[in-house]
């Protein structure tokens, strides 16, 4: 309740205990065992800051904070609490608060998204449970994407970038250091597991503009930004990493504000022990830095957890406004936690702080807020005020009405898929495929032309060979014809020679026969008269022809 320009939280029966608005950005702690009233205290604080015109953010891990969008009713318990804390009837009225529902799974609130680049390699490595070496490789992948102006907006962008770097590891290894394919594969497996947990809904655009949380309604009440976390809390690593991202985003985006009359925003971190559980030293140092410096930007952080021991001392020392509900002291460890919690308060001589811590009832708490000079007040035993909005969850129908009617629904309701690394690689793959197709087509055409050319050359060579063979055949035919003609001519010559020889022989024989006849006639006539003449002539002719034939070879 915002009363007297102060955040009225509790009463000790004599005095109203309030947080001074200008001290509210000095952070705070709400601690206590399960069932002691931490959630109601958180709700009262959130309502009071909203009444003061301060926007708040809180995670609804049980679903019982959603009722803030509906007015509360006066029950017997509320009336009794009003009497105990000294609230006059006219000072309390059931009222609804301006709630903006958010949900990273986009089911029970406006989709709350961020991009892969904005989350960064350190928090992503924590989400995926990567080793130090794998985180270094992921950092190199982010650096390459940044150097080559490739946007990493959603999980498919990161997957495409990881595969690209893995395929070109040798080339990038020379410039950025070793990029083992084995580490790339491990990161890809982690990314797949992250997508199975719903990260494909969380990473994308439109990404959250943190300035949309710094708003008030038409009545000047601060908007209560409520993150539905019933499902998210089942993955403690995702929950704590997401909350840490929001703190980092606030720290990086907001300008320095110095000392403000009231905070620009108050951030409630429920189940705060999850933030520090198994966090590496570098991350713890980052958290300490954010908590230490973010108050100068007008943001107050209030951690809600069971025991102050859940918060590292370096961070706990930064928390000026403390509300400590009852703690159990059943075991030595519990007793040690009680002593530590008691020792963190400024002593009140009226009671023993350690003893009271184990005696507090539901709705009671030890309270110490920062005073005007910045010092903590003495611890007081007090009762927390009753909330003015509805206690418990809200019906899904009413929730959806709130979500659909929110002005930010038009901005965040529909996911968009901007041109980024994934589209670049798809496009480049298509271009490469087109180039390859053109190359193959050109290569095919070249081969076809080469084949056609070779076929033409083969046909031409075949034709030339046929022509050569035909020419050879014609030459052989000509040669054979010439030989035949030569032989024929030779035969003709030989026949002519023979004929000539026969003719000459015949002439010679005739002449020889005539001469022989004449000689034989003369001889025969001399020997035997006319008979001798006839016989000698015939014999002489025969002798003459035979002799001539012998001489000329017949």
Protein model, in words:
The protein is 54% helix and 11% strand. By secondary structure, the chain is of the alpha/beta class. It has two domains: 2-112 and 205-413, P-loop containing nucleotide triphosphate hydrolases (Rossmann fold), CATH 3.40.50.300; 114-203, no CATH class. Strands 1, 2, 3, 4, 5, 6, 7, 8, 9, 10, 11, 12 and 13 form a 13-stranded mixed beta sheet that branches. Strand 2 (6-11) and strand 3 form a beta hairpin. The radius of gyration is 59 Å and the shape is rod-shaped. It starts with a strand and ends with a helix. The mean pLDDT is 88.
Would you kindly provide a brief summary of this structure?
It is built from 17 helices and 13 strands. The chain has helices spanning 38-51, 76-85, 116-128, 132-147, 155-167, 169-176, 181-196, 199-202, 236-253, 273-276, 281-294, 313-316, 332-343, 353-357, 396-405, 409-412, 421-552, and strands at 2-3, 6-11, 16-19, 28-31, 56-60, 99-103, 110-111, 224-228, 265-269, 299-305, 321-324, 364-368, 380-384.
Provide the fold topology:
Elements: E1 2-3, E2 6-11, E3 16-19, E4 28-31, H1 38-51, E5 56-60, H2 76-85, E6 99-103, E7 110-111, H3 116-128, H4 132-147, H5 155-167, H6 169-176, H7 181-196, H8 199-202, E8 224-228, H9 236-253, E9 265-269, H10 273-276, H11 281-294, E10 299-305, H12 313-316, E11 321-324, H13 332-343, H14 353-357, E12 364-368, E13 380-384, H15 396-405, H16 409-412, H17 421-552
Parallel strand pairs: 4-10, 4-11, 5-8, 5-9, 6-7, 6-8, 9-10
Antiparallel strand pairs: 1-2, 2-3, 2-13, 11-12, 12-13
Helix pairs in contact: 3-4, 3-9, 4-7, 5-7, 5-17, 9-11
């Amino acid at each position: 309740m915002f009363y007297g320009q102060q955040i009225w939280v509790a009463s000790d029966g004599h005095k109203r205990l309030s947080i001074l608005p200008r001290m509210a950005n000095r952070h705070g702690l709400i601690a206590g065992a399960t069932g002691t009233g931490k959630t109601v205290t958180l709700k009262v604080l959130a309502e009071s800051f909203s009444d003061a015109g301060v926007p708040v953010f809180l995670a609804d891990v049980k679903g019982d904070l959603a009722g803030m969008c509906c007015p509360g009713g006066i029950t017997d318990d509320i009336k009794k609490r009003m009497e105990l804390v000294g609230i006059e009837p006219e000072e309390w009225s059931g009222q609804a608060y301006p709630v903006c529902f958010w949900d990273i799974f986009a089911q029970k609130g406006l989709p709350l998204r961020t991009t892969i680049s904005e989350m960064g390699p350190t928090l992503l490595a924590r989400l995926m449970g990567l080793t130090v070496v794998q985180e270094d490789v992921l950092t190199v992948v982010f650096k390459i994407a940044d150097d080559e102006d490739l946007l990493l907006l959603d999980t498919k962008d990161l997957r495409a970038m990881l595969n690209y770097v893995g395929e070109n590891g040798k080339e990038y290894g020379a410039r950025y250091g070793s990029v083992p394919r084995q580490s790339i594969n491990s990161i890809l497996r982690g990314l797949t597991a992250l997508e199975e947990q719903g990260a494909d809904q969380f990473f994308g655009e439109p990404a959250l503009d943190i300035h949309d949380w710094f708003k008030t309604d038409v009545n000047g009440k601060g908007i209560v930004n409520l993150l539905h976390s019933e499902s998210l809390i089942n993955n403690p690593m995702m929950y704590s990493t997401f909350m840490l991202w929001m703190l980092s985003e606030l720290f990086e985006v907001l300008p320095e504000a110095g000392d403000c009359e009231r905070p620009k925003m108050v951030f409630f971190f429920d189940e705060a022990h999850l933030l520090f559980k198994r966090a590496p030293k570098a991350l713890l140092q980052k958290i300490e830095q954010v908590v230490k410096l973010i108050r100068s930007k007008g943001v107050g952080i209030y951690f809600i957890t069971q025991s102050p021991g859940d918060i590292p001392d370096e961070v706990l020392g930064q928390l000026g406004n403390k509300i400590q509900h009852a703690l159990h002291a059943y075991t030595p460890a519990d007793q040690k936690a009680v002593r530590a919690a008691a020792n963190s308060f400024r002593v009140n001589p009226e009671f023993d702080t350690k003893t009271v811590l184990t005696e507090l009832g539901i709705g009671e708490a030890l309270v110490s807020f920062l005073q005007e000079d910045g010092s903590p007040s003495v611890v007081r035993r007090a009762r927390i005020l009753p909330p003015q909005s509805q206690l418990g969850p809200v019906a899904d129908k009413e929730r959806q009405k709130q979500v659909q009617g929110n002005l930010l629904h038009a901005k965040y309701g529909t996911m968009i898929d901007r041109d980024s690394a994934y589209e670049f690689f798809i496009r480049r793959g298509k271009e490469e495929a087109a180039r390859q197709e053109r190359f193959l087509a050109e290569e095919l055409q070249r081969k076809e032309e080469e084949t056609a050319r070779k076929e033409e050359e083969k046909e031409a060579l075949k034709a030339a060979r046929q022509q050569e063979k035909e020419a050879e055949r014609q030459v052989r035919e000509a040669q054979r014809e010439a030989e035949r003609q030569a032989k024929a001519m030779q035969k003709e010559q030989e026949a002519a020679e023979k004929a000539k020889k026969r003719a000459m022989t015949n002439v010679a024989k005739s002449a020889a026969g005539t001469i022989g006849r004449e000689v034989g006639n003369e001889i025969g006539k001399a020997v035997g008269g006319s008979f001798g003449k006839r016989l000698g002539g015939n014999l002489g002719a025969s002798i003459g022809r035979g002799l001539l034939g012998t001489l000329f070879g017949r």
